Amino acid sequence: MLTSSQQSIKRMFDVVFSFFIVLVLGIPILLLIVFAGFSTKMSGLFCQKRIGKNGKPFIMYKIRTLKGLNHQSVQEIKNLETSFGHWLRKTKLDELPQFINVLIGDMSIVGPRPDITGYADKLKGEDKIILSIRPGITGPATLKYKNEEEVLLQQENPQYFNDMVIWPDKVKINKEYVANWSFAKDLKYIYASLASY
């Protein structure tokens, strides 16, 4: 578990890095949101409740890539994805508004991905160490499963595979991340994320 000084270092870096990103990319982000609105014929900014530090829910921001409000399966997501949305998701540009989440303190640059209710909020015992830090835009589990949707589409039962294979592996990876955190590793994950897209 991170010490208070380590958490302070991590938070300081998050604020400086995300402020720079928002300052430099603020207008392009707004333009992408507008284009996404035209593409989906809905609000270009997608807001969804996720589970954050200490199990506290927060609203995470993304650029909308899908038509419609409720998407129950990976197949539905693919069917409702716009061509512009596909490009946004492939390049991960749809996640740029999450730097706002970082600035206001809901998220970190690096950490476990914030999950919808029913996963992180159900963690028990030593697995709850994952909730001791802010969820991140990227991280070791995110990098390993950057093609998660494609993997799930290949499964006969995507939900079962996610719950029984991917989710437990993510928990294992994220526990290791928190237990052995270092600033150097965070920089490595950021570099790996930029290099992979």
Helix proportion: 40-55%
pLDDT < 50 runs, ≥5 residues: none
Overall pLDDT, averaged? 93
Q: What is the H/E string?
A: HEEHHHEEHHHH
Task: State the end-to-end distance.
Answer: 30 Å
Q: How many structural domains in the coordinates?
A: 1
| Strands in their spatial order, largest beta sheet | 1-2
Beta-strand portion reads: 5-15%
General form = globular
Number of strands: 4
Rg (C-alpha, Å) = 17 Å
Largest sheet: 2 strands, antiparallel
Continuous helix count: 8
| Secondary structural class | mainly alpha
In terms of quaternary structure, the protein is single chain
What does this structure look like?
By secondary structure, the protein is mainly alpha-helical. The chain has one domain. 53% of the residues lie in helices and 10% in strands. It has eight helices and four strands, in the order αββαααββαααα. A two-stranded antiparallel ribbon has the order 1-2. A two-stranded parallel ribbon has the order 3-4. Strand 1 and strand 2 form a beta hairpin. The longest helix has 37 residues. The radius of gyration is 17 Å and the shape is globular. It starts with a helix and ends with a helix. The mean pLDDT is 93.
How is this fold's topology laid out?
Layout: H1 4-40, E1 45-51, E2 57-63, H2 74-80, H3 83-91, H4 98-103, E3 108-110, E4 136-138, H5 140-144, H6 148-153, H7 158-179, H8 183-195
Parallel strand pairs: 3-4
Antiparallel strand pairs: 1-2
